[in-house]
């Protein structure tokens, strides 16, 4: 007796039904595996440790090699371990490790997920930029042209040498009518500068300054600072004592500023997460964090891993923030556009 076989039109075993059955078989296999919770406990412990470090980074002590600040400087990079642990958890078929990894991922997203979104705006009336030009820059005139081409109304430069200052002054003169150099930092502006003076950050020489920029929308106090560098030493660890002392002095100067609208431009040799900069970061907003897209890493220029070049504001609304192309320096220039309140006094 002949038998007829019928096949369902459009179903060749490769459609959604087959994919669904694969997922079902995978889940059934995991449920039937009695060792699914016992395997991968080391992976689970590592993932939980990662989450704990991110959650409690502020409690990591600085007494031993300034370990807390070192961790906070590169805190976002802890996220690179999450996909690695996730793959290992799946390979091991460990539910314990998988849950722990997902928890770590949730912690990372809670801390840094906001930086992954584009918060840039299209308004603003004052563009500012800052660049550590590097004392060993082989092409200062080219660097000056590059940063001037950014369209910044106010430009801060750090790590200026006595021999390079005339080069920067000559190259920037066609764009900026007003400028002042104080020690190793300088400020160039399209608008008049007033009340220019060095700022004492407890170094013994000048690496910070302050000026009033008379912008069209109103006066703005602009600070330029280059905090001391930090060092990683074999015996001493992450040494930053002088940087921390200077950060406190800079924070005091900004707190005493009589003008309500303040912009800080400079190389602070620390990130917004670094507790050592609390004297500054507790009273100012990061333009990148408030109005940027991504992390905006600025150092080292060859492979940026941290944003230590900062634009911070107080009493001013940041509209957009971005990183500029590389120059002859080991830092990337950074820029921001802000909205000045004409009614602020």
Secondary structure elements and pairings:
Blueprint: H1 16-32, H2 41-55, H3 67-73, H4 81-92, H5 95-112, E1 126-132, H6 140-148, E2 154-158, H7 165-172, E3 178-182, E4 185-189, E5 193-198, E6 208-215, E7 218-226, E8 231-233, E9 237-239, H8 241-255, E10 262-267, H9 278-281, E11 285-286, H10 287-291, E12 309-314, E13 317-323, E14 334-339
Parallel strand pairs: 1-2, 7-10
Antiparallel strand pairs: 1-14, 2-4, 3-4, 5-6, 6-7, 8-9, 10-12, 11-12, 13-14
Helix pairs in contact: 2-4, 2-5, 4-5, 6-7
Domain Endonuclease/exonuclease/phosphatase: 129-331
Transmembrane segments: 36-54, 74-91, 98-116
Keywords: Membrane, Transmembrane, Transmembrane helix
Report on this structure.
The protein is of the alpha+beta class. It folds into two domains: 33-115, no CATH class; 126-340, 4-Layer Sandwich (Deoxyribonuclease I, Chain A), CATH 3.60.10.10. Helices cover 32% and strands 23% of the residues. The protein is built from ten helices and 14 strands. The chain has helices at residues 16-32, 41-55, 67-73, 81-92, 95-112, 140-148, 165-172, 241-255, 278-281, 287-291, and strands at 126-132, 154-158, 178-182, 185-189, 193-198, 208-215, 218-226, 231-233, 237-239, 262-267, 285-286, 309-314, 317-323, 334-339. It has a six-stranded mixed sheet with strand order 3-4-2-1-14-13. Helix 2 runs antiparallel to helix 4 (81-92), helix 2 (41-55) packs parallel to helix 5 (95-112) and helix 6 (140-148) packs parallel to helix 7. The radius of gyration is 26 Å and the shape is elongated.
